[in-house]
Amino acid sequence: MSPLRNIAIIGPTPTLGSYILNSLLRTPNFNITIITRSTSLSTFPPHPSQTIIKIPDTYPEPELIAALTNQDALVINLPVSLTATTQLKIIDCAVKAGVKRIIPSDFAGCVPLEKTQELDFMTRDNVTVVKYLKDKEREGMTWSAIKCGLYIDYQLAVPWFCFDLKAQKVQFWDEGEAKFSTSTRERIGDAVAAVLTHPQETENKIVYVNSFTTSQKQLLGVLEKATGSKWEVETVNSVDEVSAGKEMLSKGNMMGIGAIVKSICFTEGWGADFEAEDVEVMNEVLGLEKENLEDVVRKIVESF
Ligand SMILES: NC(=O)c1ccc[n+]([C@@H]2O[C@H](COP(=O)([O-])OP(=O)(O)OC[C@H]3O[C@@H](n4cnc5c(N)ncnc54)[C@H](OP(=O)(O)O)[C@@H]3O)[C@@H](O)[C@H]2O)c1
Question: What are the NmrA-like domain coordinates in residue numbering (predicted)?
Fold first, then answer.
């Protein structure tokens, strides 16, 4: 495959998108086209390699095809609230426009094991999108889906994710010892750029990357060192949490997904520890160094 030069990105704004955009803009020889919604309040500082296209919020086909014509690659970064259907429509438009490589909005925290798919609709959606992309291979399009673990720098700064930096409290899932893969958003942005500069190595693959693997217990030790204080520990039972999450979802309460996602990440056997699964973690192939857990946590604590 010839080098990918013209790269379009949909959803290049927080929580993750701005990190992806920054990495793409730093990559030599990339021409970046930002596709943003007409009503979006996002702003983009001028950059010589960047073009901005505003299209209606519903991503209509003619406008999307026009925006994607002459693009070599498309990176999609959309909120999970939009479901797989929006992505399938965007993929169709990209194929019609002749885009050669698609990176879907995946960026998931776990390997999509059968049991994880049964539990988590977001994992199921990601599998649906990958199946669709595989189907489109015969039309000449290629794809790479990136799985990166939790966004450690984001999740640690919001108490929703068990670590409450302000109150210095943690909620352990069982003993807090289950290992999980995790990445900083900067590293995920770099992974997107690296996938596009390594098109052969990443062709038609789920690409696993991480900054490091850790556990809640290990993170607590590093956080206590970084904050210089002893944290309060509460323990919950993972089996009870899964039941509670399922019950909430079955009653239409989407908040139940919180307990499900945390159970997948903080309990063994749901696919959150990439190194423990039968998958290739591609950091080395892509030239992405692992990060130092203590340095990352110290930076998060200092900027909190
Ligand atoms: N591994 C993890 O820890 C983790 C955590 C959260 C999310 N994720 C994954 O990361 C990806 C992005 O999710 P996210 O929650 O971070 O996305 P997000 O920041 O909420 O949205 C990304 C962009 O999508 C565009 N957009 C299009 N329609 C929208 C709508 N109806 N409402 C809001 N924004 C809309 C916006 O860009 P414009 O304004 O420029 O149009 C927005 O900035 C998903 O694949 C998700 O599964 C992973």
Answer: 6-237
Closest C-alpha among 186, 139, 180, 268 to residue 16: 186
Q: What is the pLDDT of residues 75-93, one digit of tens each?
A: 999 998 888 999 999 999 9
155's enclosing H/E stretch is helix 152-155
Query: Ligand 1 pocket: which residues have CB below 6 Å?
Result: 11-17, 36-37, 40, 42, 77-80, 82, 105-109, 122, 148, 150-151, 155
Cα 40 to ligand 1 centroid, rounded to whole Å: 12
Query: What global pTM score does this model have?
Result: 0.97
Cα 16 to averaged position of ligand 1 atoms, centre (Å) = 7
Residues 152-170: pLDDT tens digits? 999 998 888 899 999 999 9
Determine the distance separating the centroid of ligand 1 and the alpha carbon of 104, expressed in angstroms.
12
Choose among 107, 134, 133, 132: nearest CA to 122: 107
